[in-house]
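Objective 1b: paired records.
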Amino acid sequence: MTLWPSRSGTEQLDGAMEDGSSPASYIRLVHRLIEECILFNMSKEECMEALSKHANIKPVITSTVWKELEKENKEFFEAYTRNRAERASETETETRRRIHNVVSESSSSSHGV
């Protein structure tokens, strides 16, 4: 992946790489961490928050690398986004069903008392 950060991105990369690693190796690290986020079915925003909190990577860096990955892997990310939306819908439907069951059971048991 070729990623040429903006001037502000370069300044952030310089500050983030105090261990002397190159910008390219830092970007590869962020790329690998984003792949891990994807394995956990995280959204871009969730990934940005997780990497900021747990890996001290600025959200703008994660966002920039994510956007480049989206450009290079358009079909994958379209499918990934659809899949996340479908899972969210299924989860919401399942949650409503469970709530309905709990309410129904509660109503049945309270009438029997």
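Objective 1b, second protein:
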Amino acid sequence: MNDDLEYGNKENVNWNNINSYSLSNSDYTAVIKDSYRNLYYRIVYLRPSLEDVKKGKRVPDFSVIVINENLDIIVEKKFNSTIYSHTIIIPNEKGLAIARKDLYNLNDNKLTFSFFNIKK
């Protein structure tokens, strides 16, 4: 519990430790409802290891956990953050659309998606 006191006093905060912790520990960012399939998608930041953070890798990959109406996990799929964008994920009648960063970087006048068919 004494460690908690360190974070309550701005003068004693070790920002390097805080940044290292936050950049190297995975966390959840969103839950998206899919009304077409009665599913939920939980988006997870898959943070790099502390060693990788120290080497300069700071951008996390991400995964999508597919959850059914009973809140049972159906599957988890990992995505490379240099290819896919965790910020533009849209459920639609074709499946789960995830924006392609790599293709957008080639032509920023065009937003391209990959579609993933989710089966219960």
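The first strand starts at residue 27 and ends at 34. The two ends are 44 Å apart (CA to CA).
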